[in-house]
Amino acid sequence: MPNNKYYYYDHELCSFVEVSPKRGQTYLRRILIGVVAFLLAGGGLLGLNAFVGTPEELALQAENRALRQQLDATQERIDHLATELDVLSTADQELYRTLLGADPISSDVRQVGVGGADRYEAFDRFSTSTAKLLRTTTQQLDELERRVSLQNESYRELSRLAETHNEALTQLPALLPTDGELVSGFGMRYHPILRIKRMHKGVDFSAQTGTPIFATGDGVVEFAGRGSGYGKHVIIRHAKAGYKTLYAHLSDIDGSVREGRSVHRGQQIGRSGNTGLSKAPHLHYEVRNLDDKAVNPIYFFAPSVTPQEYRTMLEVAERDGMSLD
Length: 325
Hints:
By secondary structure, the protein is α+β, with helices and mostly antiparallel strands. Helices cover 42% and strands 23% of the residues.
């Protein structure tokens, strides 16, 4: 072993004093322990700082977590809105457009705006997970906006069709024109005056002279006066519904019923009579299309009578007998 001796200066004795081996080891141990403790403390702080981060980094991490939670919540709301929009779209296609006779929206139209250049490449500068989340959310929002715009336009179209449809329904001749009894139907009938069998283009209701006669649907008066074998008669044009109605052999026509004037369903337009080629007081009633081709009026009466009354009317209308005009 080396025989080295170590001294230290003692200020109290004002001289050098030899260091004993045992005391030297204690002194060095204290130095080493101090150095190790310092290194451990420094290293621990560095490690903790690396694990936790600076206050600014901690704030950014908290903000990112909040933003991600908000995006996740937004994603849930988008999914819910997309489901609700699917329900509306299905009702649009399968119900409203069917009822109103509108053409369905084609898949090509529903895909308008899909595809083309990548509109979301700006998100690629972020981390993969963040870029994916931003892409997905923005794409779905754009898709919702496009679908909502398309659905709004569809409902505007359906609203216009519904308005026209309602007008057509109010103009449809779906009312009995008088309280009289149906006595002769549509088809080939024996004419009581001409004494020949010919086409009877309407139906006859037995009605005493002066019985009120009513418009069977909204429309515009096309003719009001006397003419041919119809005697005094009124023709009403129901343009939206695609029909005309004729009320013949009247005793008189109400003063408010003039050509070009509007009339409403249920409005009294005159009174029954026996004018023109008529055998007895009654109302001759016709329904025509806009090309003046006669159609069987019996099919328009169902909404205004009971099922039993309608069956009775059908039986009478189908009898092959004599008309009153």
